[in-house]
Design brief:
This protein has 269 residues and is mainly beta. 13% of the residues lie in helices and 42% in strands. The protein has two domains: 121 residues, Sandwich (Immunoglobulin-like), CATH 2.60.40.10; 94 residues, Immunoglobulin-like (Sandwich). Strands 2, 4, 5, 7, 9 and 10 form a six-stranded mixed beta sheet that branches. Strands 1-3-8-6 form a four-stranded antiparallel beta sheet, with no helix packed on it. A three-stranded antiparallel beta sheet has the order 11-12-17, with no helix packed on it. A hairpin with a 7-residue loop joins β11 and β12. The protein is elongated, with a radius of gyration of 27 Å.
Length: 269
């Protein structure tokens, strides 16, 4: 009898917890659209000098409550696998005005980003612009008959992470394939490691490019009629943006139909 009683309590607790989880999920789903503010554009390209070294962003508060926003900017880089790395604070190289802003519901605010760093660059520099929503203290009214009840005050804060590129006039990308290796192992199909390097002076997106696998004969001559092309955008987990001076390591299965032996890999637009 005692065991049956405990089982009923356990079932009741589980049911209560599931109901609370469902209610919280519904609350989150219904609240997010009303809590959002928007920022555009999230990617900007500035020149290292002249009138094009400044641009404006537009903030719009679509929430039903005031929103406090703060901007921070950091150096940006990527590791060979394409993972973003946030570097040191770069606020000494920019003027962001206003740096902080409080918007009432429906407000629209223009924010200016100005490059004040080195005026003559040899190579493009990349930065991460972080737009961070700051909580605004608010008073929670407690009714006299609910003083002994639990009160949840849940708020969702939204952050945007954008990119700012400082691009010298005439800068352009130049991607080459530095190495192609067939990774040893027992996996099937065989895994191919490809390393690209952007030896140019500007970043580039490879999303509209293709990887072309060109078999070689015994003398090292390309057999172009037997080439196999793969769209970069269709490669799983591919991070297509390659910064100036950066490298990208790519691991993909050996394409079906590619003959055994040596081959070249070419990036084609």
């Amino acid at each position: 009898m005692k065991k049956l009683f405990l089982e009923k309590i356990t079932y009741t607790m589980r049911y209560f917890i599931q109901c609370c989880q469902t209610l919280l999920a519904l609350t989150i789903f219904m609240s997010l659209p009303t809590l959002a503010y928007t920022l555009s554009p999230t990617t900007m390209t500035l020149r290292d000098s002249g009138s094009e070294s400044s641009r404006f962003m537009q903030l719009v508060n679509k929430a039903t409550e005031p929103a406090a926003i703060q901007f921070n900017i950091y150096e940006h880089s990527k590791d060979p696998d394409g993972k973003a790395i946030r570097g040191r604070d770069a606020s000494d190289q920019f003027i962001i005005y206003p740096h902080q802003v409080i918007m009432m519901p429906g407000d629209e605010v223009s924010v200016q980003v100005v490059w004040v760093g080195e005026s003559i660059l040899d190579i493009e520099q990349a930065f991460t612009l972080l737009s961070r929503q700051i909580p605004i203290p608010r008073e929670v009214t407690v009714q006299p008959d609910s003083a002994d009840k639990l009160i949840l005050d849940i708020r969702f804060l939204m952050n945007y992470e954008g990119r700012v590129y400082i691009t010298p006039l005439g800068a352009k990308a130049d991607i080459i394939t530095t190495s192609v290796n067939q990774v040893s192992g027992t996996s099937s199909p065989e895994i191919i490691e490809i390393i690209f390097e952007n030896q140019g002076t500007a970043h580039i997106s490879m999303s509209n490019m293709s990887l072309v696998f060109v078999p070689l004969d015994s003398a090292g001559v390309q057999l172009k009629e037997q080439s196999i092309a793969i769209d970069v955008a269709k490669i799983p987990a591919m991070r297509s943006h390659l910064l100036a001076g950066g490298k990208r390591r790519l691991l993909i299965p050996r394409p079906e139909g590619l003959q055994t032996g040596q081959f070249d890999v070419i990036l084609s637009q």
